[in-house]
Amino acid sequence: MTQTAPWKPQPVPAWFPRSKFGLFIHWGLYALLERGEQSLYREHLTPSAYRTLADRFKPARFDPDAWARTAKAGGMRYALFTTKHHDGFCLWDSPGTPFNAARTGLNRDYVRDYVRAFRRAGIKVGLYFSTADWSIPAYFEGPARNPAGFRDFIRTTHEQVRELCTQYGKIDLFWFDGVWPHSAADWRAKELVSMIRALQPGIIINDRVGLPGDITTPEQGFPEQQFKPSTPWECCMTSTEKWWGWHRGVAWKSDRAVIRTLSQITELGGNLVFNVGPKPDGSFPAEFTRLMKNVGGWLDKNGEAIYGVSQTLCDTTTFGLMTCKPGRVFLHVLYWPGAELHLAGLKNKVRAARFLVSGKPIPFRQESEGHLHLSGLPGRPPDPRNTVIELTVTGTPQSYDWARDRIWTGALDKTRERARAIAARRADWSRT
After folding, report:
1. How confident is the model at residue 415 (pLDDT cuts 50, 70, 90)?
2. Residue range(s) defining the domain that contains residue 345
3. pLDDT band, residue 269 (cuts 50/70/90)
4. Residue 18 is inside which H or E element, if any?
5. Are 361 and 415 contained in the same domain?
6. Residues in Cβ contact with 290 at an 8 Å cutoff, skipping those fewer than 6 apart
7. Pair (67, 97) in one structural domain
8. 2 pLDDT band (50/70/90 cuts)?
9. Do the beta carbons of residue 349 and residue 367 sit within 8 Å?
10. Of 55-59, 68-72, 267-271, 403-407, which range is least confident?
11. Quick one: 61 and 148 in the same domain?
């Protein structure tokens, strides 16, 4: 048994918050049914019939290098692959179960192929693993109703995690899912996490095994502007309206929506890990490949405003969003203001303003209390999806407190600076 150590989240390596954009790949037997990733449970299918899909899982167009090229073209810096989803089918040769891809279908270790291809492409490698396993009756019965069976199930779960952490070289990110309905104690989660850390020093572990993670992972949505996370975070989202696994009947998101979502998450200091469900033959849907080409084209030109930035300074950007780097502030203009753009609250002296893509300079004037006016803008946005304006500033970007802390955060008068600003506004209001 692995020796457990006092458990606590670990600081994440610098590559993670700098990356901003990652790829999530949901693929398994469920792709053959073309109805998303949860047909076994949602449709109450017979487990024995579902298992026969394993011999039909022969993806003739599986090409992990092509997957990696699509991720690279999309500007993605890391990836996650579903080694085992809730249906229990393992995409590697796990000795503890014959229900795996190396003993059925094409007798292939897809985890190994994925890791090698994405490593070759220079993309950080993450593994998704569902602790929930709908192929094991003891998972449903739980430790109270079937203590011996549940102990065996937990032992197998730990061993499978060990296999994934010892057979494929360095793994950058381990992404748990499916903790419900059991507790961290039931999963022996502290022991599990300690084992992973011992086998993969420096690995990032998420927050879905009943313990606080090194990162938090909101799903299909992200927090409001006032959210101030205590740990690094990423939002996982589907590229279609709903499903993670391949579903032939759902609509795809537009490149405009993805670019804006990525920019919004980046402004709040998070990452976006964006999902695709490969088709039964192993290929990425053409819609996803086109989508990544368009998003990646925008990032090729605007990536300076996304990768490696810090989150917004001001909650005063009525035109859109803001990201920052030392000596630089990026204004993501989502709502085109017309000929003039007004930014309030930036404390630094602005030395220059320009469109990031064209480099064309923008006239500006800067007034007291951080009021900045950009003028001479065109009638229409150069890029309706997200036009980025770069400000060159003196020093590390800073904001006035009143521009950062809003009334609804519950701290109206906590600093002298804000009190003076409020008093000045009151005097102004009395004159009108």
Report:
1. low
2. 320-399
3. very high
4. helix 15-19
5. no
6. none
7. yes
8. very low
9. no
10. 403-407
11. yes
Tokens 């003028």: give the residue: 375
3: in domain: no
**pLDDT computed for residue 3 by the predictor:** 46
State the DSSP H helix or E strand holding residue 343, giving kind and residue range, or none if neither: strand 341-343
Q: Is residue 179 part of a domain?
A: yes
Kindly state whether residue 232 falls inside one of the protein's structural domains.
yes
Tokens of 241: 């309206």
Residues 6+ apart with CB under 8 A from 326: 395, 396, 397
DSSP state, 415?
Answer: S
* pTM (global) more than 0.85: yes
Whether residues 79 and 106 share a domain: the answer is yes
Query: Please, which residues have CB within 8 angstroms of residue 348's CB and are 6 or more apart in sequence?
Result: 329, 393, 394, 395, 396, 397, 398
Please count the structural domains in the chain.
Answer: 3
- pLDDT value of position 370: 86
Question: Is the per-residue pLDDT at 346 higher than 80?
Answer: yes
Give the up-direction half-sphere exposure of residue 254: CA atoms within 13 A in the CB hemisphere. Answer: 5
Residue 210 CA to residue 397 CA, distance in Å, equals 38
Q: What pLDDT digit, counting tens, does each position of 199-209 carry?
A: 999 999 999 99
What is the helix, strand, coil percentage profile of the chain, to 5? 35, 20, 45
What mean pLDDT do residues 158-182 have? 98
> Average pLDDT in the 350-379 region?
96
User: How far, in Å, are 23, 92, 400 from residue 256 at the CA level?
Assistant: 18, 37, 32
The continuous run of DSSP H or E covering 142 comes out as: helix 137-145
Q: For residues 140 and 188, is the Cβ–Cβ distance under 8 A?
A: no
Task: Based on the fold, state whether residues 270 and 378 are members of the same structural domain.
Answer: no
Which residues lie across from 143 on neighbouring strands?
A: none
- The domain that contains 355 carries what CATH number? 2.60.40.1180
**Distance of alpha carbon 283 from alpha carbon 225, whole angstroms:** 37
Give the pLDDT confidence score for residue 408 in this predicted structure: 53
Beta bridge partner(s), residue 175: 128
R_g (Cα) of the chain, nearest Å = 25
Give DSSP secondary structure letters for 291-336: HHHHHHHHHHHHGGGTTT-B--S-S--TTEEEEEETTEEEEEESS-
Burial (0-12, 13-18, 19+ Cβ within 10 Å), 156: middle
Distance between CA atoms of 301 and 308, rounded to whole angstroms? 15
What stretch of H or E contains 365? strand 364-366
Cβ proximity of 297 and 385 under 8 Å: no
CA–CA separation, 294 and 256 (whole Å): 9
